[in-house]
Design brief:
By secondary structure, this protein is mainly alpha-helical. The chain has 4 helices and 2 strands. A two-stranded antiparallel sheet has the order 1-2. Helix 1 packs across helix 3.
């Protein structure tokens, strides 16, 4: 059994830190303290934390915060970030206005 899959191991109590109010995920406004607390509540994978806190699910799809989140989780679990499985990501998306889809100025041959 790998060290990370052993959920019964004790990682210690959650101890608040002075920089816990630092925003890590700007898109979803998730703080370092929220991520640290989630780990101590039993969410040990990046995918679990992403679903619970929505970090990495904003407009940038984790392009700016994914490495930071992974580093915070690894420090709390006292392991190397390379042992953590990355969450799946998608390309950054932008909203498309409806007039782009409804533009009928182009002639089409049927």
């Amino acid at each position: 059994m790998s060290e990370l899959s052993n959920r019964s191991r004790d990682i210690g109590e959650f101890v608040p830190m002075p920089d816990d109010d630092m925003i890590v995920c700007r898109c979803e406004e998730v703080t370092k303290g929220q991520i640290r607390k989630a780990v101590h509540e039993g969410l040990w994978t990046i995918a679990e934390i992403r679903r619970y806190l929505r970090c990495g699910m904003g407009l940038c799809q984790g392009q700016t915060c994914a490495k930071l989140v992974k580093g915070i989780v690894a420090r709390e679990l006292k392991c190397s970030p390379t042992l953590l499985e990355p969450a799946s990501s998608r390309a950054p998306m932008r909203p498309t206005e409806m007039h782009v889809y409804a533009d009928e100025t182009e002639d089409t041959d049927l």
